[in-house]
Amino acid sequence: MMFGAAIGVGMLTWAVAEPVYHFQNNPDVIAGTATGSAQDNVVNAYKWSYLHWGFGAWACYGITGMAMAFFSYRRGLPLTVRTSLIPLFGKSLSGPIGNVIDIVAVVATILGVAQALGFGVEQFVAGMTRIGIGGLTNAETNTANSFGILLSITIIMAASTASAVSGVGKGIKILSNLNMGLSIFLLGFFLIFGSTFFGLNALFMGFIDYMINLPKMLFQVFRSDGVEGSVATNQENWQGAWSVFYWAWWVAFAPFVGLFLARISKGRSVREFVLGAMIMPSIMCFIWFSFAGGTAIDLTRNGAAGDAIFSRPDGDKIFAMVVYMLGDVLGWAMSVLIVVPLLTYLVTTADSAVLMVNTINAAGDEGPKARPHIYFWGVALGGVVAALLIAGGPDGGLKAIQTAMVIGAFPFSIVMVLQVASLVKAAYNDVQRNKNGVQSTTDDIVPDASLVAGE
User: Fold this and answer.
1) Please, what is the Cα angle at 336 between 332 and 340, to 5 degrees?
2) Residue 91 class from Cβ within 10 Å (0-12 exposed, 13-18 middle, 19+ buried)?
3) How confident is the model at residue 449 (pLDDT cuts 50, 70, 90)?
4) Distance CA 7, CA 277 (A)
């Protein structure tokens, strides 16, 4: 269900595309310490890929999720973003401060999910084209045209809104189980028929290099020297296009994935939460990137595939790879199998987002009165994605979403810092209560409705 809450659709796009990009170019190549598209750059490609999909990303989701879960399940408060800041602001959260916090969370969520859906729509259209449905792409760029975007968004949002209405325990759970099963099958295919030894080597060597360099990669900021084309300028441009973009994506996803993690983690200890919400998902991402992306790199590196994979648009790289590996007939069948989990991931991403945004705005109310709002947010989310993709044109649609997301994510990064302080303060207070024999949890408290209703 965690991967169904948005990460899965990103993995299907970037598990192949991102290692391929970093294999060709990354800060080490720019600095001259490695050679692009050469053997000595393989580990670097995975070091940087793991940075963007590993512990740093899931830690952002875990911070917000743990903060909300802590105050909801240990204090009996509504499961909303504002209640995670109770130790810092107290009752003042019932007024404008709390409203601003929830608005910031909703804006970040909408724009973060719009980015994921934007990538997903491009890949969904690429997959539909691969299996024989024409008229969905621009002939010149091979990217989705306006008709392809609108058709895809309509299908995805109609299915996701229906799933959201059914709730987490029904539609979302069923679809999550389906797409995870298909994803495991696809991963098994790469493990058995892909570049298995290359993938294992990339996994272990890349992980070791990633852990050694993680502190430096997290805190190093490349600064331009003002000279166009210099090493410093190119490294700054690379970091802005990749690491800063991912920073914004992590933060924008934090209220969405964090709230979803909190909802499905009741009864867990903090240790279990960290293991299940940060460590294990990161390892799954490492494995996916190693074997899916590693197969693409190996097929190209040994000269067999030529430009058949690298030259394709991001969303089409995974389809191009399986067609090259299996031929036209079996490649078509495998493309169908990829399109199915892609669609279900898109649906679970959208319905999870709709449900979470509605939960924030309804102050935790999940009753029948909240259902009309689910329809509204389904239409609103679909409209935002479609408008940004179409308005940006064939080449600038995703850039338009990316720009909007970076702007929308920054305010919530401040909220996340406050959540860390709030959680630390609450945990310290609980330790003091336990030392003095004072109860630190409650199971039957009646939440203060004014705290979340703005009264």
Assistant:
1) 170
2) exposed
3) very low
4) 12
Rounded-to-integer distance, Cα 20 and Cα 300, Å: 9
Q: What is the pLDDT of residue 392?
A: 64
Contacts of 369 by beta carbon, 8 Å cutoff, 6+ apart: 362
Summarised one tens digit per residue, pLDDT across range 273-295 is: 999 888 988 998 999 999 999 99
Helix residue spans in 25-54 (DSSP H) = 27-31, 42-53
CB 58 within 8 A of CB 250: no
Residue with token string 């630390």: 424
Return all residues near 422 (Cβ < 8 A) that are at least 6 apart. Answer: 67, 84, 85, 86, 87, 88
Residue 454 in tokens? 């703005």
3-class DSSP state for residue 144?
strand
Which residue type occupies 446?
Answer: V
What does the chain come to in residues? Answer: 455
In angstroms, rounded to a whole number, what is the distance separating the alpha carbons of residues 319 and 337? 10
Helix, strand, coil: what percent of the chain each, to 5? 80, 0, 20
Q: Number of helices (H) and strands (E) in the chain: give both, helices first.
A: 18, 0
Alpha-carbon distances, residue 337 vs 127, 307, 331, 333 (angstroms): 10, 24, 10, 7
Residue owning tokens 């702007």: 407
Give how far Cα 234 sits from Cα of 365, 407, 446, Å.
49, 23, 56
